[in-house]
Write a structure and sequence with these properties.
single chain, 76 residues, 3-stranded antiparallel β-sheet, 1 helix, 3 strands, elongated
C-alpha cells in the first residue's frame, strides 16, 4: 500500500484552550480504483504534557504506526 505519512509537533494554543503541544501523525492512503482519485486520511494525536514521560508519547506514536502497517483494503 502506498501512503503518505506525516509527523508534526503542533504548538500549544492557550487562546484556543490547548495548553500543551501535541504530536499529530497522519497517513493519507489512496482509495484503490477510484476515479477521479480519492484519498482516505487516518489521523492520531497525543498531547505532550510537561510532566508526561516522553517515552510514553513516543510509544503511542509507534503503536499507531504499527496499526497502520496492518491496514489492508478488502472487497466484501
Amino acid at each position: 500500500m502506498a501512503a503518505v505519512r506525516t509527523l508534526r509537533k503542533l504548538p500549544a494554543h492557550p487562546e484556543r484552550g490547548v495548553e500543551v503541544p501535541s504530536w499529530r501523525v497522519q497517513y493519507i492512503v489512496p482509495i484503490p480504483h477510484s476515479a477521479p482519485a480519492k484519498w482516505l486520511t487516518f489521523s492520531f494525536s497525543t498531547l505532550i504534557a510537561p510532566d508526561m514521560d516522553t517515552e510514553f508519547t513516543e510509544t503511542l506514536v509507534e503503536l499507531f504506526n504499527a496499526v497502520m502497517t496492518t491496514f489492508r483494503w478488502s472487497h466484501t
